[in-house]
Amino acid sequence: MHTYQAADCVRQDEKVALWKIANHEHEPEHTHSFVELVYILHGSGIHRINDQSYNVRRGDLLWMNVGDRHSFYAGQDMHYMNICIVPDLLNEHLSSLEPNQGFFSQRLFQEFRQALQRSFHHIRFQGRSLLELEALLESMYNEYVSKKIGYCAMLCGYTMLLLASAFRKMQDNFEQETGVDFQELLPKLLSYIEQHYASPITLRDLAKESYYSPQYISKTFKACCGYTFTEYVQGVRLREAKRLLLESGECVVTIGRSVGYADKSQFYRLFKQYYGITPQQLREQASRL
Q: Where is the HTH araC/xylS-type domain (predicted)?
């Protein structure tokens, strides 16, 4: 897989590069050392990012951060704009949200923090917001091509406007859709937990399954289920432990390990907190019935 370097695509003094591309049939999977945005101007196609496929059309803005893997399958009528941004463009403003999201500014874009906690690659613009974005991109492209005096400063300003517009649309979508798409995804996540509860399952595992960030899953899981992720996993483990205690002859320690608790003391403590009695007391009560 090829890795494109910023020096190959973006001039050091400009920090940003823009191209308009037409009828580009296929771009093999690759990655890069800069942030890349693709805006669909006309037509349709398929964009694949980190093993997730997106059907794209006019109004779609695709976001590839440093290190993301992606490929592009374009129809014959596909026209799009490619925007490449060197991550240190806004260094004087930046204070990273997370180690792997250093491009985002906590200070400059803190209003959008809630939306930025979601893993995202595909932002859809419609109606007036589509026209406004296209006007912004056209002005930015003309500035890049004409290279009039002060154009680097103009490109920096347009880039900030572009980022804010993208984050605003993400925030709008977040406020309109929070919980709806997650509710549809929830059965899949619950099934994943029920299949893997005996292993050291984490929020990062669910993030890989869902393409949401661990922070977003944690918050929305609690809102949708009434339990934290940890509380739900513990409940699944302890209910299975109770079933095994009543239906099998395995020793308590073996049962604890089989449901994900290698530490005997932790298993006893959590079981008693959950059921009000120890595993051994449960068996004794059952034997008297």
A: 187-285
| Sequence-ordered alpha helix ranges (H) in 117-261 | 127-146, 151-177, 180-196, 203-210, 214-225, 229-247, 252-258
**Residues 157, 151: Cα–Cα separation, whole Å:** 10
Q: How far apart are CA 216 and CA 212, in angstroms?
A: 6
Tokens of 74: 């374009």
Tokens of 197: 């509860």
Q: What angle do CA 164, 165, 168 make, to 5 degrees?
A: 80
Beta strand 26-32 pairing with 2-4: parallel
Q: Which domain holds residue 184?
A: 180-226
Q: What backbone phi and psi angles, to 5 degrees, belong to 68?
A: -65, 145
167 plus 209 within the same structural domain: no
Rounded to whole angstroms, how far apart are CA atoms 45 and 279? 57
pLDDT in tens, 57-72: 888 999 888 888 889 8
The one-letter amino acid code at 119 reads S
CATH number at residue 36: 2.60.120.280
Alpha-carbon torsion angle 92, 93, 95, 99, nearest 10: -80
Rounded distance between C-alpha atoms, residue 18 and residue 137, angstroms: 9
| pLDDT tens digits for range 143-171 | 999 999 999 999 999 998 998 888 888 77
Residues 50 and 172 in one domain: yes
Q: Of 283, 286, 220, 208, which Cα lies nearest the Cα of 251? A: 283
Residues 6+ positions from 128 with CB-CB distance below 8 Å: none
Residues 132 and 220: beta-carbon distance below 8 Å: no
The predicted model scores a pTM of: 0.57
